[in-house]
Design a protein that fits this description.
The complex is a heterodimer of chains A (871) and B (341).
Chain A: E1 2-4, H1 5-9, H2 21-27, E2 31-38, E3 45-55, E4 63-68, H3 86-90, E5 93-98, E6 108-113, E7 127-129, E8 132-134, E9 136-138, H4 151-167, H5 174-186, H6 201-205, E10 209-215, H7 226-235, E11 265-267, E12 275-282, H8 291-299, H9 307-319, E13 324-327, E14 336-340, E15 346-348, E16 354-356, E17 362-366, E18 369-373, E19 377-378, E20 390-397, H10 400-410, H11 415-422, H12 429-444, E21 447-456, E22 465-468, H13 470-477, H14 483-492, E23 496-498, E24 517-520, H15 532-543, H16 565-575, E25 579-580, E26 586-587, H17 589-592, E27 604-609, E28 612-615, H18 620-632, E29 638-649, E30 654-665, E31 667-669, E32 680-681, H19 684-697, E33 704-707, E34 714-724, E35 727-735, E36 751-756, H20 758-768, E37 782-791, H21 796-807, E38 811-820, E39 829-838, H22 847-865, E40 868-869
Chain B: H1 2-19, H2 23-34, H3 40-46, H4 53-93, H5 111-125, E1 129-130, E2 136-137, H6 139-142, E3 168-169, H7 174-183, E4 188-197, E5 209-219, H8 224-239, E6 245-252, E7 255-264, E8 281-290, H9 292-297, E9 306-313, H10 314-321, H11 328-332, H12 335-338
Parallel strand pairs in B: 1-4
Antiparallel strand pairs in B: 2-3, 4-5, 5-9, 6-7, 7-8, 8-9
Helix pairs in contact in B: 1-4, 2-4, 5-10
Classes of the chains: A alpha+beta (871), B alpha+beta (341).
Chain lengths: 871, 341
């Protein structure tokens, strides 16, 4: 919310200390976002430092300056980040040609940027002075709209000159001060050397009107008015309040009564509108607002329209209660009702659009139909126009939920709905009405006609009384504040101590609150203070968060969990040369189609946003995108991985699975340096090396490789999984050639994909945690090599498995060390070279012991696989 | 006479030994003089039977003395030669160390994950366990259980991604608080890092998904002072032990009292700069005492237990800490960006 400082200051009997406002606001739960000085004409005049100043080659009296205005030039474009890059910083340098005799390199001066229209009326365009383009102008105090005759301006500049001189170690005498002051008006104003650059000159010299921008959280509707903020600041000790509450006109009836105008309202939806007050003001003249009022409204960010509407808005900003003026001639004031919209009702709102009113919408209507969407926007048909002479001023209390619903379903927001949604003071309805009528009569003439009406739901508003156990405050905050001090703090915020809790028994919690003290909540805090804990928060703010002592909670036990296995996978992958990337989990649907068996398996957004359409079923498409980007930008290869979730839509439930997916495209060994292996691309066996290497480093060995037929994204003939204890730990292989083209990858090259399943790996590791030491033999081994020729369809793993099966206790290890197909063996056959290692736990083996076992294995292999020994 | 010959052999052997410059020459020398069969000393010893009996013993002794002397000299010389040869080899092995390395360049960590891991590590030191929860959430865990009213604006379709067939993408990791408390009784001390989603248009400051770390501590006698102490300890370990921290009142539906934590700007030290928008402070995240009704929602007695919760943006922290000007750099994954971390 924006409020002019002078308006706020008016609420105080004491001088307002501007420098203390920010702290007082944040101690009260508000935040001062900015404090700006607004002076028409100075919007684009900023402070700049003259870096260089050289004489103009074509003119004796001109000089060419290079001026740094920091980020000032990017102020217009909100998309520029605050931490601008070096390139952007360069663009903050301006060339300015000046005739000023008194500036030199190093000076900080006011710079009017191109497009400025100064208070003096002077316009700054892109100029060319004797062949050199100039992008702005240095200003004197006079050009900034200051005046030597204005005592404030003159003394301010004199103080600045004294400070500047003092910084140089010079004390100015009276005559020198006057001269320096006059120079500032005549020549370019040179600012002190510690002036920040790139800032609006109005902020630096405090020119014009000071406006505060205050951030208000959703719970603090009471902060959405000048009075509300003044109240909070006063409670924070900033000054003595002087609210003009007592000076209201009240319900006086003056002038000629016009008895034929009847005012009547009915609450047909008391659950949405429990209080409705209104009054008629007659004989007014619609016209422009007085200057002071329109100026304050504009500074607060509200457009001035006419004196009637402005008066309503002014009082709303002043006290927080939204008000509405209906043209009396265009409504039937005797039949006003606050009710739900009826089926098929519509209303043309002030903004000119015809709106269908959903059934639950709260409207203000007369006998003929809806006049306004209650609390949100008035109807065009009953609005104030130039011809209006009498109005009905409405001040009502609508429930926040009702207004929120209306605003949402109609997609319509206003200053009024904003305030009702956050809760206005239900006890101050009439006060605001009368204040609005006072102001209306002051600025538009006319007089009150008849009595005000104040229609309420039975007993509304019921007093709100909340219990507080002072010792509970200490327990929650870890502070020690006496009960009386707590009561005093609450009193400063408007919470008065009540005699007893009237409905303590009714609430059924009388037991714990038996010794509690009870406080009546002021009307403006009814929306956010309803419970004991809310009072405790108020006390915490009054104590000051900073005054509550920092403590560390005692640590009775240590956390149970270890770092997740995915962290170890990440580290091992990095060790193998993979780079970690960050990929999006909400992706285009098209990218995922080949990774699910049907579109029903994708988790879809109800409302896609551009490329954000479905939750990914695989990380691979995003990794391919990253590879594409980097290869396009000149990278020779991409070794990348990301660990993230994939999402599966089941029939009745959804699952999220963690996957660590790695992709290698390009040469994994570049063969560039001496003794290095020849260059080769990441292929199936390299991928297998990554899979076994990472798992091996985790202690998972003797993994079974299982051929995989159709893994999405992988080459069907070059894909496999590693399995241990029945758990699939990793799936890997070569990238499916069909993906090369869609992602513009280099054709004719292989790429490797490795997908770890961290949950399975973790489970596997957990199962192995209980294992103990297994003794190993200290006796030498006997090794035998053999080559067998067999059908090429038989996979090596099968041969190894049957060798193991036949080998018995002495066979320690079987290893395939060569596979050959070619002219040396018959067509359709392949030669496998095996290395078998035998060892006994308790003795050195002899040939006579090994020979029969070895022969038995070979015999078994030959029969089992229809193989022959290769000699 | 024969002794003179022996002396002569000794002189010659010593002279030749001094000239032997390699192991091969040394071996040759040894065979020539000390060889068992045809070494010159052995041959001389073979002449003993030809000598007069009285001469035999002193002659044999003197030859043996010479042999010992030569063997000793050989040992010394051999050590010299070995060291010379090693020196020579070391000299020849000398390489140009500025030539490139062989083998694969190791990978790099992504900045966001690194920031997450650093934050987790600090909270582990403070005794926090790590918990996780689903990103595909329901309205109860993401909103209702956290005291967010039915008609609250944050539930609007422009602020929350809803899913076809019901459910939503969580907008905050606070949902993990609820899930954890549903299945655990106090004492509870967890952090929950994770990905959250909000339909923001992509700008240098906003991306529709980002990462948060949520914290929750519930036990008997947990105070607001504990909250301040814990988060201050975190901030100082992350940004420097002398760094100032402040807490200012704020509002969240699920905590009360609520606060915003600010850390003294790490770039200007509080005097005001562009990074901190000239305020001297950088916002770290929201926190507060767990609202009693949240505890009630998950079946924990708020009269017996109290607790605090906090949430911080991980991407944001990383961007501030490493001065990354545009959030899109985090998602673009240009290798030249990644290489820096």
């Amino acid at each position: 919310m924006r409020i002019p400082l002078e308006w706020l200051a008016e609420k105080f009997a004491t001088e307002l200390d501007r420098s203390a406002i920010a702290t007082a606001l944040f101690e009260s739960g508000f935040e001062l976002e900015s404090l700006d000085w607004i002076r028409p004409g100075l919007e684009t005049v900023v402070t700049g430092r003259i870096l260089t100043c050289e004489s103009h080659p074509n003119a004796d009296r001109l000089r060419i300056c290079s001026v740094d205005v920091a980020e000032a030039r990017s102020h217009g474009g909100s998309s520029t980040p605050k931490g601008a890059s070096a390139a952007e910083a360069d663009s903050s340098l301006l060339t300015i040609v000046t005739a000023a005799p008194n500036v030199q390199a190093g000076d900080i001066v006011p710079v009017a940027l191109v497009g400025s229209r100064l208070p003096t009326g002077k316009e700054i365009g892109l100029g060319k002075l004797r062949g050199v383009e100039s992008y702005g102008m240095f200003c004197s105090a006079t050009e900034l709209g200051m005046a030597l005759e204005a005592p404030g301006d003159a003394s301010r500049l004199e103080a600045m000159e004294v400070k500047k001189a003092a910084a140089r170690g010079v004390v100015l005498d009276a005559a020198a001060r006057v001269r320096a002051r006059e120079d500032a008006f005549e020549f370019v104003l040179v600012l002190p050397t510690d002036t920040p650059i790139g800032r609006p000159i109005a902020d630096i010299l405090e020119l014009g009107d000071c406006v505060l921008e205050v951030a208000i959280t959703a719970n603090r509707g009471d902060g959405l008015s000048v009075t509300g903020l003044a109240r909070a600041l006063a409670a924070a000790g900033l000054g003595q309040l002087a609210l003009a509450g007592g000076a209201l006109g009240g319900g006086s009836v003056a002038g000629t009564p016009l008895p034929e105008v009847k005012l009547n309202a009915a609450l047909e939806a008391p659950d949405l509108c429990p209080r409705y007050t209104a009054r008629i003001v007659s004989g007014l003249a619609v016209g422009p607002s007085p200057e002071w009022m329109s100026r304050r409204l504009e500074l607060a960010g509200i457009r001035s329209l006419n004196n009637v509407i402005d008066a309503m808005n002014y009082v709303m900003l002043d006290v927080g209660q939204p008000l509405h003026a209906f043209d009396l001639a265009r409504i039937d004031a005797a039949t006003i009702s606050a009710r739900r919209a009826r089926p098929l009702e519509r209303l043309t709102t002030l903004d000119g659009s015809v709106r269908d009113l959903p059934p639950d919408t709260l409207v203000i209507a007369d006998a003929r139909g809806p006049l306004a969407v209650a609390g949100v926007m008035g109807g065009l048909g009953s609005s104030v126009s130039a011809a209006t002479t009498s109005v009905m001023v409405e001040s009502a209390y609508f429930l926040p939920g009702a207004i929120r619903r209306s605003a949402r379903t109609l997609g319509l927001n206003s200053e009024s709905s904003y305030r009702f949604e956050r809760g206005v003071d239900p006890e101050a309805t009439v006060e605001a009405l009368e204040r609005a009528c006072d102001l209306l009569i002051q600025v538009a003439g006319g007089q009150r006609l008849g009595a005000a009406i104040d229609v309420r739901r039975q007993g509304f508003p019921e007093p709100l009384v909340v219990p507080l156990r002072p010792e509970r405050t200490d327990r929650i905050l870890g502070a020690s504040v006496s009960a009386d001090d707590q009561a005093r703090m609450l009193a400063s915020l408007g919470f008065s101590e009540a005699q007893a809790g009237p409905d303590a028994a009714a609430s059924g919690r009388s037991e714990i609150y038996r010794d509690a003290r009870w406080f009546t909540v002021p009307g403006w805090r009814r929306h956010d203070v309803t419970r004991e804990i809310d009072l405790i928060e108020e006390i915490a703010q009054r104590i000051g968060y900073g005054a509550i002592l920092d403590t560390l909670p005692p640590l009775a036990t240590l956390p149970d969990s270890r770092p997740p296995v995915s962290d170890r996978l990440r580290e091992l992958l990095r060790g193998l040369g993979f780079w970690e990337v960050l990929t999006n989990s909400v992706v285009p649907a098209a990218s995922q189609q080949s990774f699910v068996s049907g579109p029903d398996e994708l988790v879809k957004l109800a409302r896609p946003m551009g490329d954000l359409q479905v939750m990914r079923a695989s990380l691979l498409p995003s990794l391919l995108e990253v590879a594409r980007t980097n290869l396009n930008r000149g990278a020779s290869r991409a070794l990348i991985y990301d660990v993230g979730r994939v999402y599966v839509q089941g029939e009745s439930s959804r699952t999220e699975l963690l996957q660590a997916t790695a992709l290698a495209i390009g040469a994994v060994a570049d063969g560039m340096w001496k003794h290095a292996p020849e260059a080769y691309d990441a292929d199936f066996f390299w991928a297998k090396g990554v899979a076994t290497g990472v798992l091996g480093a985790l202690g998972l060995v003797d993994l079974e490789a299982r051929q995989e037929g159709a893994v999405p994204g992988l080459h069907p003939g070059r894909a496999a999984s590693l399995v241990l204890d029945g758990l699939v730990l990793v799936t890997f292989g070569e990238l499916h050639p069909a993906l090369v083209e869609p992602y513009d990858l280099p054709t004719g090259k292989r790429a490797a994909v490795v997908i770890f399943h961290p949950d399975a790996v973790a489970e596997c590791l957990a199962r192995r945690e209980s294992r103990g030491f297994v003794p190993f033999s200290r006796f030498p081994a006997v090794e035998r090599d053999v080559a067998i020729v067999l059908d090429q369809g038989i996979v090596a793993g099968e041969v190894v498995a049957s060798a193991r099966q036949a080998g018995g206790a002495l066979l320690e290890r079987v290893r395939v060390f060569d596979r050959y197909a070619g002219p040396q063996v018959p067509a359709g056959k392949v030669s496998l070279a095996l290395n078998l290692r035998y060892r006994a736990p308790d003795r050195t083996l002899t040939d006579s012991e090994v020979d029969p076992v070895h022969a038995g294995i070979l015999d078994h292999l030959c029969r089992q696989h229809d193989a022959t020994l290769r000699v | 006479m024969t002794l003179t010959i022996a002396d002569e052999i000794r002189e010659r052997a010593l002279a030749e030994l001094a000239g032997a410059g390699s192991r091969a020459e040394l071996d040759e020398w040894a065979i020539r003089y000390l060889g068992r069969e045809r070494g010159e000393l052995s041959r001389l010893l073979k002449t003993i039977p030809t000598l007069a009996p009285a001469e035999r013993k002193p002659f044999g002794e003197s030859i043996n003395a010479i042999k010992k002397a030569l063997e000793a000299a050989q040992g010394v010389r051999a050590a010299e030669v070995r060291s010379q040869e090693l020196g020579q080899r070391l000299l020849e092995d000398r390489v140009d160390v500025t030539l490139p390395a062989r083998g694969t360049e190791p990978g790099h960590e992504h900045l966001v994950y690194r920031a997450r891991d650093e934050m987790i590590e600090t909270f582990r030191l403070l005794g926090f366990d790590v918990a996780e929860g689903p990103e595909l959430e329901d309205e109860w865990h993401n909103f209702s259980a956290l005291n967010t009213p039915e008609d609250h604006p944050s539930r609007d379709a422009q602020d929350t991604f809803y899913l076809q067939g019901g459910g939503l993408l969580r907008t905050q990791t606070s949902s993990v608080q609820i899930r954890y408390m549903e299945h655990h009784q106090p004492p509870i001390r967890i952090v929950a890092p994770g990905r959250v989603y909000r339909p923001d248009t992509i700008t240098p400051r906003h991306y529709p998904l980002f990462h948060q770390i949520e914290g929750l501590l519930v036990d008997e006698n947990v105070t607001f002072g504990d909250l301040k102490g814990t988060l201050s300890a975190f901030a100082r370990r992350t940004f420097g032990q002398s760094r100032k921290v402040r807490f200012r009142p704020s509002f969240f539906p699920f905590t009360e009292p609520s606060a915003e934590m600010d850390v003294e700007c790490i770039f200007c030290g509080g005097s005001g700069c562009r990074v901190c928008s000239h305020s001297g402070w950088i916002e770290m995240g929201g926190c507060g005492m767990v609202d009693p009704s949240v505890l009630t929602n998950v079946g924990i007695d708020p009269e017996r237990y109290t607790g605090f919760a906090f949430g911080m943006g991980i991407d944001r922290t990383a961007m501030i800490r490493y001065q990354v000007p545009d959030i899109r750099l985090l998602w673009e994954n240009d290798l030249r960006f990644l290489r820096q971390f």
